[in-house]
UniProtKB/TrEMBL annotation:
It comes from Parabacteroides goldsteinii. Residues 1-122 form the Bacterial alpha-L-rhamnosidase N-terminal domain. This is alpha-L-rhamnosidase. GO terms for biological process: carbohydrate metabolic process. InterPro entries: 6-hairpin_glycosidase_sf, 6hp_glycosidase-like_sf, Alpha_rhamnosid, Bac_rhamnosid6H, Bac_rhamnosid_C, Bac_rhamnosid_N, Rhamnosid_concanavalin. It is an enzyme of class 3 (hydrolase). Gene3D superfamilies: 1.50.10.10, Galactose-binding domain-like (2.60.120.260), Maltose phosphorylase, domain 3 (2.60.420.10). Residues 583-656 form the Alpha-L-rhamnosidase C-terminal domain. Residues 236-580 form the Alpha-L-rhamnosidase six-hairpin glycosidase domain.
Length: 684
């Protein structure tokens, strides 16, 4: 919907539409539907009367315009010799145009789009341009970005200028294209005359850092190129910076990767011939993203995409929207449906998605119980602990059974967590009668799961992978009294077998950083966060990455799956940054940061953190410093909220009579201060 009041004149008006292929044509999914237009102009006059102009057979159409090809994967081709001067202005002669065809109405119900469109959100300039031996030029944007390249160049009539895009370079300085698979990623502009021209495509986007330019007879200046960064219009709500440059770079890489994959849905990647809404990528990641961006509208919309993908039997497609129909009836990917709905409630205080989708969620839970549960164990799994570090850096997936977590462990632990979530959803949705059934099934599953997979003598689950143990621990399946022993296995495995490095894939990494911290090993979490050797986020950054890779070994693995811009391996890292390093954490009994528990951790070697998050109540700020025996902490709490602040006793803070302090309580390990809205300064 657009307000076009300022564009209308009292006399004659013309509507002109340039119609591209979008995601609904040439999507390489065994079906082709022609792009179609449904347009309606509603004019309301001062006297209250209305005129409605609708797209119909009175409209004229031509395929002979200058945009001769456009495709999300392959790029856009523009022939300036075919430009139609004034085609969208009053008085244009359209006598040679054809009458528009009436297309078949799409199936389904037409609904309003709930989230804003893609927008140009930032512009960046390249940092270098290099001439190749073949006369082509390589432009380096300095950042792996997603969007378009606008150019202002000198061309020759009939001589195409070609721009090819890539995320990486080969050792010889040429474009690395192998990881793009069949995507052609090429824009072409053909000048109509000699001389200067300015152009940018309008129907495509690319994921790229480097651009190869051919068809020029001179070396252009850097000022001739502008990168237009494009993603769904939304506000940046979080900031995070520390005294550690590597952590700051990893956060920056996450920021660029997250927004580059917001395209009307959260996509897996922005560059190759895929770019789909894989559910497994966002189960926990969406929560971390919500600190950085106000993504509530996007994820509300995506939940509807997920429900729309559901089969009559109750299956959910692992890719939603359902450009690829993948009904595996696994648990770990569709879990995103539930976790994202819970995120919208916990982070933004909005339970409407839970209520709206509760019947669909219940249907899926019942379907999985009927088709994938045997003796209270979920036996189906498709993806395993996807992309865990393999034993050889040339592999995509590990072949070592000792590294691989039993799929039934993954599915059962996740389904158990969903039963507990559905108990809360039932309460919020006014479906309290369902709660007992969820709780009884959860209890039976926990008993059966521990009987089958837990080894009491060693406190290990399955084959003792970190993922098996930490999912069992974090999701509440460990028998009472064994928690510390299970955690000891996580520590021993991480330190002994993996040298203090990540050994998990997409599922284990969702709980690793918070799990290590909750059970007292902040030092290990910090080591993992700051490692720059393989496998680690720091290794990616050290190798020059400016976004997050799809694989821990994305620089050495088979090109079939080594996207340089994925966010699934972030797991709970961003959550850990904000909640544990900065101390911006919603109290467990609260939602949307009405009440906070601010109890940051202070790893050895980290001297300062400064973070802010714009919650629905207002901006929360936390900035602490510690060095050479001094400690200070500045906090801002928005109106109509409160916080419990916990400061370790070792910092020996001065008691002050600051306005807004409601209560001070000393424990053996920390000073606890309850504060209301306002700004505070604590120091020793």
């Amino acid at each position: 919907v657009y307000d076009v009041t300022d564009l209308l004149s009292k006399d004659k008006n013309t509507i002109g539409v340039a119609l591209g292929n979008g995601r609904y044509f040439a999507m390489r999914d065994r079906q082709e539907t022609l792009p179609s237009l449904l347009a309606q102009l509603e004019i309301e006059y001062a006297d209250g009367s209305q005129t409605v102009i609708v797209s119909d057979t009175s409209w004229k159409v031509t395929s002979k315009g200058p945009i001769i090809a456009n495709n999300e994967f392959d790029g856009e081709e523009y022939d300036a010799r075919l430009e139609l001067s004034g085609w969208n202005k009053n008085g244009f002669d359209d006598s040679k145009w054809l009458t528009a065809d009436v297309m078949t109405t799409p199936a389904g119900k037409l609904t309003v789009q709930s989230n804003p469109n893609l927008r140009i959100q930032e512009e960046i300039k390249p940092v270098s341009i290099t001439e190749r031996p073949d006369g082509k030029y390589i432009i380096d944007m300095g950042q792996n970005m997603v969007g378009r390249l606008a150019v202002s160049l000198k061309g020759k009539k009939d001589q195409p200028v070609t721009m090819k895009f890539a995320e990486l370079l080969k050792e010889d300085g040429s474009l690395y294209l192998a990881n793009l698979r069949s995507a052609n990623v090429t824009d072409i502009y053909t000048p109509a005359r000699d001389g200067q021209f300015s152009w940018e495509p309008i129907f495509v986007y690319h994921g790229f850092r480097f651009v190869e330019i051919s068809g020029l007879d001179y070396k252009p200046e850097l000022s001739a190129f502008t990168g237009k960064v494009i993603y769904d219009k939304m506000k940046t709500t979080g900031k995070f910076e520390t005294s550690n440059p590597l952590v700051n770079q990893i956060y920056k890489n996450a920021y660029w990767g997250i927004r580059g994959n917001y395209r009307g849905m959260p996509t897996d990647c922005p560059q190759r011939d895929e770019r789909h809404g894989w559910l497994g990528d966002r189960v926990t990641g969406a929560y971390g993203e919500a600190f950085i961006f106000n993504n509530a509208l996007l994820y509300n919309k995506w939940l509807q995409d997920i429900e729309d993908s559901q089969s009559p039997e109750g299956s959910i497609s692992d890719v939603s929207p359902r450009y690829w129909t993948i009904y595996n009836d696994d648990v770990t990917w569709p879990a995103a449906y539930f976790y994202v709905a819970n995120l919208l409630y916990r982070q933004f205080g909005d339970k409407s998605a839970i209520i709206r989708h509760y019947p669909s969620m219940k249907r899926w839970m019942q379907h999985i119980q009927q088709t994938a549960m045997q003796d209270y164990i979920i036996v189906k799994d498709t993806y395993g602990d996807w992309c865990m570090p393999p034993e050889s850096q040339e592999l995509i997936h590990s072949q070592d059974p000792a590294r691989k977590t039993d799929g039934a462990i993954l599915s059962t632990t996740m389904y158990y967590s969903l039963l507990n979530m559905m108990s809360e959803f039932a309460r919020l949705s006014g479906q309290e009668n369902d709660i007992t059934a969820y709780q009884e099934l959860a209890a039976k599953m926990k008993e059966a799961y521990n009987a089958k997979y837990f080894h009491p003598e060693t406190a290990q689950y399955g084959n003792n992978t970190v993922t098996a143990n930490i999912l069992s621990l974090r999701l509440g399946l460990v028998p009472k009294g064994y928690e510390e022993k299970v955690f000891a296995n996580i520590v021993k495995k991480t330190e002994g077998d993996f040298g203090g490095h990540v050994s998990t894939g997409v599922l284990g990494i969702q709980h690793l950083m918070r799990g290590l911290t909750e059970y007292g090993r902040v030092d290990m979490a910090w080591k993992i966060a700051t490692n720059d050797t393989y496998p680690s986020w720091g290794y990616m950054a050290k190798k020059g990455a400016t976004t997050i890779w799809e694989l821990w070994n994305g620089d050495t693995a088979d090109p079939a799956m080594n996207s340089a811009n994925h966010v699934m391996l972030l797991g709970d890292l961003i959550i850990w940054y904000y909640e544990d390093l900065a101390g911006i954490k919603c109290a467990p009994e609260s939602v949307a940061y009405k009440k906070l528990i601010m109890a940051p951790v202070f790893p050895e070697g980290l001297n300062a953190v400064s973070a802010s998050y714009e919650s629905v109540y207002g901006e929360i700020k936390s900035a602490w410093k510690k060095e050479n025996g001094t400690f200070s902490w500045d906090i801002t709490i928005p109106g109509n909220t409160s916080a419990v602040v916990r400061i370790p006793k070792e910092f020996r803070i001065k008691q002050s009579n600051q306005s807004g302090v409601r209560r001070v309580n000393d424990t053996a390990s920390y000073t606890e201060i309850e504060i209301g809205s306002g700004s505070y300064h604590f120091n020793n």
